[in-house]
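Re: Re: ligand-bound prediction request (bumping)

Still looking for help on this. To restate: I need the protein modeled with 3,4-dihydroxyphenylalanine bound, output as structure tokens. Inputs repeated here so nobody has to scroll up.
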Amino acid sequence: MLPELIHNLKNEALALISQTKNAKELEDLRISFLGRKGKINQLFAQILQLTNQQEKINFGKSLNEVKQIIQEALANQSKILASDEETTFSWFDPTLPGVKPAQGHLHLLSQAIEEISEIFGQIGFVRVRYPEVDWDWYVFEALNMPPGHPARDEWETFFVEAPKHPQFGEMVLSTHTSNGQVREMERLKAKPPIRMLNLAKCYRRQQDNTHTLMFHQFEGLVIDRNIKIIHLKGVLDYFGQAWFGAGVKSRLRPFHFQFTEPSFEVDFTCLNCQGKGCRSCKSGWLEIGGAGMVHPKVLEAGGIDSRQFRGFAFGCGVERLLMLRHQIPNIRLFYENDLRFLEQF
Ligand code: DAH
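Reply:
Sorry for the wait, this slipped through. Here it is.
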């Protein structure tokens, strides 16, 4: 009877020990088998019940053997658990700095488009988009450039091979965002106030370090009663400071556009030299776009009474603004998708 108990105890212990998964489980088993009140000691206590001397000796001997076997099994399992832990975690060094996963971000131009929309949004301009493929009427004629007018030569236009519109003429790729002016007047049923920001792609047959066939412009248009040049100046100063930094001033230089009267070219003071004149700007001023007071004929083309309402407008290239801000030497960099360039922004 008793040898069988010992045998079963041994098997039970070995089975349980081999199933342990960590040091704590192993220690619990050690206590339950070899502890002071453990199963082995409980069996030792039963020796007293034996009367036969030889039996006592045999029993004590085999119990000691089992005790030793269990001790060895515990030691073995302890080694196995330790080496498991090592193989599982040896690669993990919590003191090493982490590796940052590569993270993408918006393209430089998309960031600028968001930023420009936000800057003008702050002062109530509503962002709109009008067709990039548009009719001659919106791109030229409604802007006081009738067919054959020499001012059109300024915009090297792509014409689309499509039937002419009976009213609006030929189909073109819009050369500027000014096509949005009359479209916006129509959208608002010729009812000012109008505060539009039209930001879109434009197309011109021109290619060099500062021109690509496709580029981005934004167009501001404000129409209301009593709008004056000073309002235009205020908006441009506000934008210049928001985009380039505090202290930047704008300058309106007399110019000619068919769709504005008077017309200006817009310069900002160069941040590089604080307007003193440096290698990149020469004069202390950076030219950033065109502007003016909306020509009465343009207002009329949009159905607005030019005796009651006036407006100002301005247009500016997004790539150009970025090139000036970051001193980017070549506009093609925007479109080559070279990560070494894009990652810098
Ligand atoms: N559309 C002109 C261009 O592409 C820029 C421009 C000039 C826009 C004067 C305007 C403006 O709104 O008033 O060169």
